[in-house]
Amino acid sequence: MTRKVEIFDTTLRDGEQTPGISLNAKEKLEIAKQLEKLSVDVIEAGFPIASNGDFNAVKAIAEEVRGPIIAGLARATSKDIDRAAEALKPAERPRIHTFIASSPIHMKYKLKMTEDEVLEAAVAAVKRAKSYVEDVEFSAEDASRSDIEFLCRLYSEAIKAGATVINIPDTVGYATPREFANLVTTLMERVPEIDKAKVSVHCHDDLGMAVANSLEAVLCGVTQIECAVNGLGERAGNAALEEIVMALNTRKDFYKVEHSINTRQIYRTSKLVSTITGIAIQPNKAVVGANAFAHEAGIHQHGVLAEKSTYEIMTPESIGLATNTLVLGKHSGRHAFAERLKELGYELPQDELDKAFERFKELADKKKEVTDLDIEAIVEDQAVKLPQSIEVECFQVSTGNKAMATASVRVNINGEIVEEAATGSGPIDALYRALERACNIDCKLVDYSIKSVTGGKDALGEVTVKVDKDGKIFLGRGLSTDIIEASVMAYANAMNKTLWNNGNGKSS
Ligand SMILES: CC(=O)SCCNC(=O)CCNC(=O)[C@H](O)C(C)(C)COP(=O)(O)OP(=O)(O)OC[C@H]1O[C@@H](n2cnc3c(N)ncnc32)[C@H](O)[C@@H]1OP(=O)(O)O
Ligand SMILES: CC(C)C(=O)C(=O)O
């Protein structure tokens, strides 16, 4: 039978120790209910002695959440254990998690206790916890920097005292995967009573090795992993739940273990935790980051369009995400662009598609990401385009609150290059006057409007103008990330139409 690894979620305890997070009982309960849906085996709901608020949160979770074991943390002291027991009273499946540090550094400087005193406190704590609940977890804090002889003695005595779970923490994220595997294996071999308890690990991410260390421990035979959603936790955080679970899933061929997590709830859980804690998820975060299922490069997009597994080792659906995304940007290719146009309902003939793709690439050089609205704007702009008799080759404008706006333009009118300059009440007015002079068209601007077609600082601006020429109104549109350029394009577009109306336009 395949071994099962239990997922002990400590988002609400160690996760809450993330600098800047303080959750109230209602928020903790909401997260706990989502963790229940995620189907974690254990929810460490808090540290009841820490505050009345945390006591109440653990109690509320113990009252309302059914299914997972509900754990409360306690130092190896009577008052902590009594408080934890009190908070956990309503739980269907309570667990008291008691701990004491075992490393020379912690014992000498923090606890000011000898090995024997720590051993005695640990045994007394486990026994006291056991007097309240059947399920007692014992952790030797800073195990990875502890003396192995002492550690074996400590775990052995904790199990004899009634611990049902012994947890091996890499409290300060110091161990390397090989060292941590050696530690776990040594304890498995040398603690005589170890088969009477579940063996757990709790890894921190100070050197970015929390997930790797936890997974190494799985290979050594541990049956519980402690982790937190989005990798939250003290300092650099804990092993990220979603990374561990998806590694076990995706590489089941390698780890060969079962777990109970409903992976389709991962994305929702991650979002909820991020929203409630206010800790944003970095875009390149494994599994749940915004880019985890996004492809930008043309070669990758082409591969994914042909067969998703070319560049996706797990499906977005498996974590509860509707779909992957092909992000259109400067690295994208024709395949992805054409596919997006199709999704947006545009079926363009090849020559128009080529033109639109060219404009898309020009825009992508200026913008980080080209959105659907940008693409629609490009296609629609192209659809209404008449052959251009007037092409603005370049323009320049200078303005200031204490200076007269001056503009110059160079225009190609049916192959003839004309340069002109003008002043105006503002940069747009100056440019429009220069354009009128260069094109020798006597028209009047009757309406000017500008709007942002897309969001962000690098959004496309769309300028629409109405121009009166001999009593007739001509509409012009311009689109650019530069609103001055969009204004020039819009006016040139309207003037171009006046020429076509007069029969002066020329097919380009
Ligand atoms: C590795 C971990 O993540 S462990 C969990 C860490 N989490 C937290 O500390 C969050 C909640 N903590 C708190 O609210 C507070 O620290 C409390 C309520 C637990 C204790 O507060 P205070 O009584 O004011 O003590 P303070 O936090 O300043 O110092 C810790 C005390 O606990 C002792 N202690 C630390 N760990 C343990 C332990 N496992 N068993 C027994 N005593 C311990 C320390 O030696 C120190 O004792 P001292 O007051 O006699 O010097
Ligand atoms: C309480 C223990 C498990 C802990 O949080 C740690 O050692 O990091």
Automatic annotation (TrEMBL):
Region: Regulatory domain, residue numbers: 391-508
Pfam family, one: HMGL-like
Chain's role: Catalyzes the condensation of the acetyl group of acetyl-CoA with 3-methyl-2-oxobutanoate (2-ketoisovalerate) to form 3-carboxy-3-hydroxy-4-methylpentanoate (2-isopropylmalate).
Species assigned in the record: Tepidanaerobacter syntrophicus
Biochemical pathway: Amino-acid biosynthesis; L-leucine biosynthesis; L-leucine from 3-methyl-2-oxobutanoate: step 1/4
The protein's required cofactors: Mn(2+)
EC number of the protein: 2.3.3.13
Gene that this polypeptide is encoded by: leuA
Single GO MF descriptor: acetyl-CoA C-acetyltransferase activity
Gene Ontology biological process: L-leucine biosynthetic process
Family stated for the protein in its record: Belongs to the alpha-IPM synthase/homocitrate synthase family. LeuA type 1 subfamily.
Enzymatic reactions: 3-methyl-2-oxobutanoate + acetyl-CoA + H2O = (2S)-2-isopropylmalate + CoA + H(+)
Annotated protein name in UniProt: 2-isopropylmalate synthase
Location of the Pyruvate carboxyltransferase domain: 5-267
Complex and partners: Homodimer.
Gene3D superfamilies xrefs: 1.10.238.260, 3.30.160.270, Aldolase class I (3.20.20.70)
Key word DNA damage present: no
CDD domains assigned to the protein according to its UniProt record, in alphabetical order: DRE_TIM_IPMS (cd07940)
GO cellular component: cytoplasm
PANTHER family in the record: 2-ISOPROPYLMALATE SYNTHASE 1, CHLOROPLASTIC-RELATED, HOMOCITRATE SYNTHASE-RELATED
Keyword Transferase: yes
